[in-house]
């Protein structure tokens, strides 16, 4: 079993600190995470946001997932390992979200290394993996576009107030 990688990036006209307030806050996650698939219904953080904490997700359909935070560098880097113990597909996923200052804001780069955990023959694995890679990429693209729109709107509102 070898991990596959899917990546997506989006330029956002905001500081890394403004973006961090969204990506490192599990209560804000349902506002920007793509809605293709089950909607995230509840998110619970296991303690202060830091390395070695967990985020528990329960989808509207009852499926659960856990993100274990493996790296937490405010304003720079968030790494999480995702486990999904409920069928139909059990996946191994390692998410990395990096923030880099660019000329007009911040480049948000999202990497997902993933693979199917359950045994499948090579043909089945290839068919599922191809479609799944496309689904993950679409989820990342839509999520980062949602994040961009929410943050840039918030920044604009804050600027108008001052």
The share of residues in helices is: 25-40%
Count of distinct strands: 7
Molecular shape:
globular
DSSP summary: helix tally = 3
Outline the secondary-structure elements.
Elements: E1 4-12, H1 16-23, H2 29-32, E2 40-45, E3 54-59, E4 64-73, E5 77-83, E6 91-102, E7 105-116, H3 122-161
Antiparallel strand pairs: 1-7, 2-3, 3-4, 4-5, 5-6, 6-7
Overview of this structure, please?
- The chain has 162 residues and is α+β, with helices and mostly antiparallel strands.
- The protein has a single domain (4-155), classed as START domain (Alpha-D-Glucose-1,6-Bisphosphate, Chain A, domain 4, 2-Layer Sandwich), CATH 3.30.530.
- It is built from three helices and seven strands.
- It has helices spanning 16-23, 29-32, 122-161; strands spanning 4-12, 40-45, 54-59, 64-73, 77-83, 91-102, 105-116.
- Strands 1-7-6-5-4-3-2 form a seven-stranded antiparallel β-sheet, with helices on one face.
- The longest helix is centred in the last third of the chain and has 40 residues, at 122-161.
- The radius of gyration is 16 Å and the shape is globular.
Task: List its traits.
single chain, 162 residues, alpha+beta, Alpha-D-Glucose-1,6-Bisphosphate, Chain A, domain 4, 7-stranded antiparallel β-sheet, 3 helices, 32% helix, 38% strand
């Amino acid at each position: 079993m070898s991990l596959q990688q899917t990546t997506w990036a989006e330029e956002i006209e905001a500081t890394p600190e403004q973006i961090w307030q969204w990506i490192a806050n599990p209560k804000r996650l349902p506002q920007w995470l793509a809605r293709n698939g089950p909607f995230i219904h509840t998110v619970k953080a296991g303690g202060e946001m830091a390395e070695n904490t967990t985020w528990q997700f329960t989808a509207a359909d009852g499926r659960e997932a856990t993100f274990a935070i493996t790296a937490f560098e405010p304003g720079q880097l968030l790494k999480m390992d995702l486990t999904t113990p409920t069928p139909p597909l059990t996946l191994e996923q390692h998410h990395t979200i990096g923030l880099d200052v660019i000329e007009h804001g911040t480049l948000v780069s999202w990497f997902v290394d993933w693979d199917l955990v359950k045994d499948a023959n090579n043909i089945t694995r290839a068919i599922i993996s191809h479609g799944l890679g496309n689904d993950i990429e679409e989820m990342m693209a839509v999520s980062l576009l949602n994040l961009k729109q929410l943050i840039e709107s918030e920044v604009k509102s804050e600027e108008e107030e001052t």
